[in-house]
Amino acid sequence: MKFVDFVCFEAIIPELQAKDRDGVIAELVSALEKAGRLKKPSREKIIKSMIERENEASTGIGKGIALPHVKYPGIEDVVAVIGQSSTGIDFSALDKQPVYSVILLISPVDNPDKHLQAMESVFKRLQQERFRKFLRQSRSAEEIEELLKEVDENPAL
Amino acid sequence: MQAGQDSLEKVVCETTVEIKNKNGLHMRPAMQLVDLANQFDCDITVNNSENVVDGKSIMQIVMLAASCGTKLKIKAEGTDAKKAISAMQELVENKHFIDPDSAD
After folding, report:
1. Fewer CB atoms inside 10 A, N or C side of chain A?
2. CATH topology for B31-97?
3. Which domain holds residue A141?
4. Is the pLDDT of residue B8 over 70?
5. Could you tell me if A91 and A100 are in contact, meaning their C-beta atoms sit under 8 angstroms apart?
6. Which of A113-124 are b and which e, b meaning 16 or more Cβ less than 10 Å from the residue's Cβ?
7. How many domains does chain A contain in total?
């Protein structure tokens, strides 16, 4: 899967206002709602279940990355948004380090394989130190969009 | 590498497991698998016939995107390889991970 297939570029937040985990999740879900990717009543429910999921096991996988995600019945297709924090956020990450790039993903309930494919695409890139570095250095939504489109076009990069 | 280990035979163990929980190897089961792999000293690789990845790296395991029905080859090399393989097989095929999302 390509990033363009599931990342909502209009909702990207190059510098998150929130300074804590729950605030970041709320900020990113609200951005998706504002971009028209969620129906309004879903917002609170999605935020709540995403925080619950995070409390069960952190999605802070280390190296400054967290991937909060949830399956939600009202969603037709996988949608993701990216938010960055230059100060770093405590996500109770596996390596106990702060998180600088947050990739938040909402998936439909009835399509587990599609969820896996989106995760695969994300992880494939996140494994690359260069990609993580470029992502973290991006200072605007446009730069992030360009980066994602560039790697979409060049699978070998 | 410690001196005096040369006489020890290198144990290599391998098995093929099938992912049986309906949501596949998503993040939480992947973390369980990686946590388990990290309890052993041996090197562990997981192979889905396209990619061979490090069984101790969460990013690499999730990258396999193994859906329900996928067969994975797990290979362990090191003194506790046999134990590692049987523990991992148990987690995947008998326990089906302890995946609350997969409860039907």
Report:
1. C
2. Histidine-containing Protein; Chain: A; (3.30.1340)
3. 3-153
4. no
5. no
6. ebbbbbbbbbbb
7. 1
Catalytic residues of A: 69
* CATH at A139: 3.40.930.10
Contact A42, A106 (CB under 8 A): no
Q: How is chain B split into domains, by residue range?
A: 31-97
- For B:35-94, CB contacts with A below 8 A are 58-60, 62-68
Nearest CA in chain A to B64: A120
Q: Which one of A57, A116, A127 has the shortest CB-CB distance to B59?
A: A127
For B25, the closest chain A residue by CA position comes to A116
Please answer yes or no on whether B59 and A67 come within 8 Å at the CB atom: no
pLDDT tens column, B62-103: 888 899 999 999 999 999 999 999 999 999 988 888 755 544
Banded model confidence at residue B7, pLDDT cuts 50, 70, 90: very low
Residue of B nearest to A113 (CA): B67
Q: Specify whether B96 is catalytic.
A: no
The sheet carrying B43-47 orders its strands as B12-18, B71-77, B43-47, B52-54
pLDDT, tens only, A116-144: 999 989 998 998 999 999 999 999 999 99
Distance CA A29, CA A97 (A): 23
